[in-house]
Design a protein that fits this description.
This is AAA family ATPase. The chain contains 31 helices and 14 strands. It has a 7-stranded mixed sheet with strand order 8-9-10-11-12-14-13, with helices on both faces. It has a 5-stranded parallel sheet with strand order 2-3-4-1-5. A two-stranded antiparallel sheet has the order 6-7. β3, α5 and β4 form a beta-alpha-beta unit. The radius of gyration is 32 Å and the shape is elongated.
């Protein structure tokens, strides 16, 4: 055997090298003098493969008969003499780079203090055929792009995760068995260092079910992703990115206060962060790693961060109009990414085709054609009729200039005869009337049609359009029930089990069996449901909601009014108020369950709000003197208020009606309170 250990090392590296064709082609062109490029700037997060790529570049330099000069900014004093000394050491104490040398600089982010000197002083002295590769976590500073000379000589490459085939080759070279590769590829998300670490675990017979199952691996990845974090506010920003689909400066302000602008700038500069028109997004693998680490080290603060992200998205969704609602709905849907179908969503996000919007009228024919192709003319006729009644309820995903996915969510009652004509809607509303009727002011949401353009209800665009449009409905209307109709329960059943939606109605329509899953939001509020979904993402639980999370069956309007009057008389008697039927309503709801103090506070707040209504001061005063600062008797209250007894009683009756109306809007969800306080 000839050669030395270094030759064997280089050969082993080259055998296991995969991908990076674009970067290699650019480097080869520079190495052989094809084109004007002489400087390659390679950047990306830790562990993405920069050092591995530099090793491959060095091997190609040697094959070409040239001299590679490899230095690492992490081992160099970031000053001109330090760089010069490192080059001399790499050359065996020669002072100058020889003609045709190729300078390979790793860890270039550590040399930012000498970036200008290197660009303006050192590199211009090199021979015309020299090639320079600068590899670091950060993108190049502006002069590399804006200077007319360097702009012509420099090529910038942002290293991305490896593709599925490339990742499979890497794992194969590492000796991973074929049956294990798909799972490890899913965990690694194309990140080379993660694949290498997972391959080591697999070789030892330890294949984690998730990254959270391998804390040592998490620690190694965190070390590769993160340099020193400046402080607590910056840690909070990373926790926020681990939860949120998009992180905005407004969201950070809710979490870190006045530090938000500085934290935003720091986040935006991280190599694993991408800046887009709606905010910052983090690389999926880094998100997974951070999520697992925060869950392990600080579960309660991390839960509070998740709740703040949720509240911000909900408040913005409710305040938004038009397409902006769907952006915030996607933020919320993304928080459910541990669902059984999360992999499909990740694939769509990678393509960028994830915008759910209200359909235009000229798209209705496309939508009906899709429905007719998969469900027949009778269903298409019903869809066409519903679109004349509630056209604004049709959401679509567009791709390649066409409707790629659709969801039509009906809000009932509609006042239309279609509720009787459509056998599915008729059966759903009959179930509602029989089991738990909608109360005055409440609506029933029915996701009536759901489809993708290519694979019907198994289409990934159907998966996107359905949940995102439904979240908008669930959070912006006072709903009693939500129902989702499917003709493919075999595919959707596991997802609905995860969602705690029960299989409630089955009916034939248009020659196909329609299965309807539903949930009564009066029994489990949407806020509680979102917490349950997160917990199920961690535990894998499915099925009906736990009994401990369910409220009692909803009060009708008459019993609610009676309960309000009884509660007013017991406001200062917590023992009596604890027996109020209102304790099972939205008025008493908190993060940890029903609370007597919360019930009393909401009723008192309702009385205060009454005073803000036109001519409401007298009504508030009557309730105040009757229940809050109660006089010994109604006669005494009337005397204090300077009213005849008959007038006082007339005002009291009117005030009770108004207060009950106001509290009813809270109960049915038309007026929403932050129940986590």
């Amino acid at each position: 055997m000839s050669g030395n250990l270094g030759d064997l090392l280089e050969a082993a590296r080259r055998r296991r090298f995969v991908g990076r064709e674009r970067e290699l082609a650019c480097f080869d062109d520079a190495l052989h003098g094809r084109g004007t490029c002489r400087v390659l700037f390679v950047h990306g997060e830790g562990g993405i493969g920069k050092t591995t790529l530099l090793h491959e570049f060095a091997a190609r330099v040697r094959v070409a008969g040239r001299i590679p000069v490899h230095i690492d900014g992490r081992d160099i004093d970031a000053a001109p003499p330090g760089v010069a000394a490192a080059i001399r050491l790499a050359l065996g104490d020669r002072d100058d780079l020889p003609a045709g040398a190729v300078l390979l600089v790793d860890g270039y982010e550590q040399l930012s203090p000498v970036d200008g000197w290197l660009r303006d002083t050192l590199l211009p002295t090199l021979s015309a055929d020299a090639v320079v590769v600068l590899a670091g976590r950060d993108p190049p500073s502006a002069p590399w792009r804006t200077d007319p000379g360097w702009g012509d000589l420099t090529a910038v490459h942002h290293l991305r995760p490896l593709g599925h085939a490339e990742g499979g080759d890497l794992l194969a070279h590492a000796g991973v068995a074929p049956d294990l590769r798909p799972h490890l590829l899913t965990l690694a998300r194309g990140h080379p260092l993660t694949m290498a670490l997972l391959a080591d675990l697999a070789a030892a017979g330890r294949v984690p079910g998730s990254l959270a199952d391998a804390p040592d691996l998490i620690s190694a990845l965190l070390e590769s992703f993160l340099r020193e974090v400046p402080g607590e506010a910056y840690l909070t920003s990373l926790a926020t990115c681990a939860v949120a689909w998009l992180t905005t400066e407004d969201l950070l302000r809710r979490l870190v206060g006045a530090d938000a602008p500085a934290v935003w700038r720091w986040l935006a500069a991280q190599p694993f962060i991408t800046s887009g028109p709606h905010g910052l997004s983090i690389h999926d693998l880094v998100r997974d790693v951070l999520h697992a680490e925060f869950e392990r080290r600080a579960p309660e603060p991390f839960r509070r961060t998740r709740w703040t992200v949720y509240i911000e998205a909900v408040s913005r969704l409710r305040a938004a109009t038009g397409p902006d609602r769907q952006v915030h709905a996607q933020q919320l849907f993304f928080m459910l990414r541990s669902s059984p179908l999360a992999g499909t969503l990740a694939g769509l996000r990678a393509q960028g085709s994830t915008r759910v919007v209200t359909a235009r009228p000229d798209e209705h024919d496309q939508v009906c054609a899709v429905i007719e192709r998969f469900e027949g003319p009778a269903s298409a006729d019903l869809a066409r009729a519903w679109l004349t009644v509630q056209p604004q309820q049709l959401s679509v995903v567009r791709s390649a200039g066409r409707v790629a996915g659709l969801a039509l969510n009906l809000l009932c009652p509609t006042g239309s005869g279609l509720e009787e004509r459509d056998p599915v809607v008729r059966a759903v509303l009959a179930h509602v009337a029989r089991e738990a009727p909608a109360r005055p002011g409440e609506l029933v949401d029915i996701s009536r049609f759901l489809s993708g353009a290519d694979e019907h209800q198994r289409d990934r665009y159907a998966l996107l359009a359905g949940p995102v449009s439904s979240i908008v409905e669930w959070l912006t209307h006072p709903l009693a029930w939500s129902f989702i109709v499917t003709v493919d329960p075999e595919h959707w059943g596991p997802f609905f089990d995860y969602m705690a939606f029960a299989r409630l109605v089955e009916v034939d329509s248009g020659g196909r069996r329609h299965v309807v899953y539903g949930i009564d939001w009066r029994r489990i509020p949407v806020d509680t449901w979102f917490d349950l979904m997160h917990e199920r993402g961690r535990t894998g639980a499915t099925g009906p909601p736990p009994a401990a999370l369910l409220r009692p069956p909803p009060l009708d309007r008459v019993r609610f009014a009676a309960a309000v009057r009884a509660a007013l008389q017991a406001l200062h008697r917590p023992d009596r108020l604890a027996g109020s039927p209102l304790l099972g309503t939205a008025l008493a709801a908190t993060a940890t369950g029903p609370d007597v103090d919360r019930l009393r506070a909401v009723i008192e707040d309702g009385i205060t709000r009454l005073g803000a209504e036109p001519r409401g001061d007298r009504l508030r005063a009557v309730l105040d003197r009757t229940y809050l600062r109660a006089a010994p008797s109604q006669e005494a209250a009337a005397q204090i208020l300077g009213l005849p007894l008959s007038t006082y009683r007339r005002y009291l009756a009117k005030a009770l009606d108004h207060l009950t109306d106001l509290l009813w809007t809270v109960e049915i969800g038309d007026v929403r309170l932050d129940t986590r306080s």
